Amino acid sequence: MSLAAEAFVSQIAAAEPWPENATLYQPLREDQILLSDCASSLAVQAYLRMLGLPVRVRCRANAEYMSPSGKVPFIHVGNQVVSELGPIMQFTRAKGHSLSDSLDDVQRAEMKAYMELVNNMLLTAELYIQWCYQNTAAEITRPRYSSPYSWPLNHILAYQKQWEVRRKMNAIGWAGKSLEQVYEDVSQCCQALSQRLGTQPFFFNKQPTELDALVFGHLFTILTTRLTTDELSEKIKSFSNLLSFCRRIEQAYFESQDRDSQSGALDYSKGPSLM
Amino acid sequence: MAAPMELYCWKGDYGLPSVDVDCLTVLAYAKFAGAPLKVHKITNPWRSPTGTLPALKTREEGSLSQPSKIIIQLRKQKYNADYDLSAKEGADTLAFVSLLEEKLLPAVIYTQWVDAKNYVDVTRRWYAEHTPFPLNFLLPNRMHSRQIERLRLIRGDAILEPEEQLEKELYQDALECMTLLSQRLGSHKFFFGDSPSSLDAYVFGHLAPLLKIKLPNAKLQQHLNSLENLQQFCSNILLLYFPSDSREAPSRNTAVHTDAGDFDNEPHKRRNQILSVLFAVAAMLGYAVLSGIVTIHSSRSQLEEPRHDDGDEDDEEQE
């Protein structure tokens, strides 16, 4: 897209208000969605709820193939389709909605850095445990990932995806890590997040930011998802301030709003609860 | 701890102690922590104990090649540059290193290895000129395809997007990342107070090549040049910790500049001319031999004839 065209699009985006019928697409919640996708989807939902932008959640078996970047989740707003948290943040900012306007330059730099920490360590660890740890891959990941497809496509697609993730791990130097080292990395990452959060209600004082949405998405999903072992969620449970942080956001942005709107199944998108 | 650990790195150039991002990071960290390493600056990765560079050879744990593992190993040996950091600063280090790896590193790989003009004019030339003979034909291309594959996998796309689109996205992230780093650094000498830590090593490792290696397409460089504190940060570290390398820079730079003109093309042209003439002659001779214009038999008999006269009697005697 040329610069002129992009400026034009963002102008249109800015001119149009947020529509009532904005939709977020993700894979099937019960049978298909994987830990990492669920975490990303929940992060986007938390982000939009923090901004007070309404969005309906739709589950589609082929969400991954509907998305423009091949990654879930993606939102459909008016005439536009945007995928992943980073671009969605840019998109809402173009419309004049942002959570980080009150931060100063240094804080914004730190916020971006911590967001990359979550992507770099937590997300990669989730992918590793999903696809590279034999037990999880065989018992949970491959069957779930391929559940909408019939034989032989289910095997082909699942192994193709696994192969791709393993090569990615090779490229970033995670292939040689053992499961213990990955748990150690998760622990280190949570330690860093816990240090940063301290006793504050949110990462940057009283107001939630993009970072809070992202951290909540990942931690909450890890805490509420059952894997072959509990070790991953145990790592997080040892940080009490992170636990209460998750509860706080769940209460403030998911339970109260769900109770208010009483919209039932369509909006109730988060799955299990911590309480 | 009798023998010091040995570190294998890519050779330095352009006023840098090493041309490679990972090697620079490790070298800087070792300097900051004061670790007594025996550094081998080599241009043949096959001579490193792991087959890749950088590599740290230790007594107890064998050889390590990932920068993060090398740094952890040095830390275990009590060479810790992060000793004075508070827990929160340690957390910040982890976060900013992630930021560098996710946002800046892909753009650095792109600008050095994927951008066609930069790769052909600078990167491939440097590696081809510096690696030893049979390897110099093989290695740059292999590194090239490996880096492209790495970039593709980091981005998680099925295929890399067309160049312009990809470049725009990567550079956008990288410029933002540099601006964020510059804001975080502010007017400080190092990221955390007055002494350098591992974050400083990582930032230096990623930025110094952009700053020092002159590339034809230099968008990242231009942006970095506009961020004065980061520029100052890199040259400070070079001056303080690698004085011998940075002193070499001016002479080396002028050499590069004169090289850039017609002078440099000349030896290559001459070599190519000689090679092509040799090839043509070989092809013609080969054709002549194969089609029977010149037969090996006749040429051998012609050559042997003078000798034949001398050895004639001897042969007969032996028989």
UniProtKB/TrEMBL annotation, chain A:
Keywords: Acetylation, Membrane, Mitochondrion, Mitochondrion outer membrane, Protein transport, Transport. The keyword Nucleus does not apply. InterPro entries: Glutathione-S-Trfase_C_sf (IPR036282), Glutathione_S-Trfase (IPR040079), Metaxin_GST (IPR033468), Mito_Protein_Transport_Metaxin (IPR050931), Sam37/metaxin_N (IPR019564), Thioredoxin-like_sf (IPR036249). It comes from the Eukaryota. GO terms for cellular component: SAM complex. One of its GO terms (biological process) is mitochondrion organization. Its main location: mitochondrion. Residues 187-249 form the Metaxin glutathione S-transferase domain. Residues 41-162 form the Mitochondrial outer membrane transport complex Sam37/metaxin N-terminal domain. CDD domains: GST_C_Metaxin2, GST_N_Metaxin2. The keyword Protein biosynthesis does not apply. It is found in: Mitochondrion outer membrane. Involved in transport of proteins into the mitochondrion. Belongs to the metaxin family. Interacts with MTX1/metaxin-1. Associates with the mitochondrial contact site and cristae organizing system (MICOS) complex, composed of at least MICOS10/MIC10, CHCHD3/MIC19, CHCHD6/MIC25, APOOL/MIC27, IMMT/MIC60, APOO/MIC23/MIC26 and QIL1/MIC13. This complex was also known under the names MINOS or MitOS complex. The MICOS complex associates with mitochondrial outer membrane proteins SAMM50, MTX1 and MTX2 (together described as components of the mitochondrial outer membrane sorting assembly machinery (SAM) complex) and DNAJC11, mitochondrial inner membrane protein TMEM11 and with HSPA9. This is Metaxin-2. The gene is MTX2.
UniProtKB/TrEMBL annotation, chain B:
Residues 23-143 form the Mitochondrial outer membrane transport complex Sam37/metaxin N-terminal domain. Residues 176-237 form the Metaxin glutathione S-transferase domain. Keywords: Isopeptide bond, Membrane, Mitochondrion, Mitochondrion outer membrane, Protein transport, Transmembrane, Transmembrane helix, Transport, Ubl conjugation. One of its GO terms (cellular component) is SAM complex. Its main location: mitochondrion. GO terms for biological process: mitochondrion organization; protein transport. The keyword Nucleotide-binding does not apply. InterPro entries: Glutathione-S-Trfase_C_sf, Glutathione_S-Trfase, Metaxin1/3, Metaxin_GST, Mito_Protein_Transport_Metaxin, Sam37/metaxin_N. Residues 300-319 are annotated as: Disordered. The keyword Chaperone does not apply. The chain crosses the membrane at residues 274-296. It is found in: Mitochondrion outer membrane. Involved in transport of proteins into the mitochondrion. Essential for embryonic development. Interacts with MTX2/metaxin-2. Associates with the mitochondrial contact site and cristae organizing system (MICOS) complex, composed of at least MICOS10/MIC10, CHCHD3/MIC19, CHCHD6/MIC25, APOOL/MIC27, IMMT/MIC60, APOO/MIC23/MIC26 and QIL1/MIC13. This complex was also known under the names MINOS or MitOS complex. The MICOS complex associates with mitochondrial outer membrane proteins SAMM50, MTX1 and MTX2 (together described as components of the mitochondrial outer membrane sorting assembly machinery (SAM) complex) and DNAJC11, mitochondrial inner membrane protein TMEM11 and with HSPA9. Belongs to the metaxin family. This is Metaxin. It comes from Ictalurus punctatus (Channel catfish). The gene is MTX1.
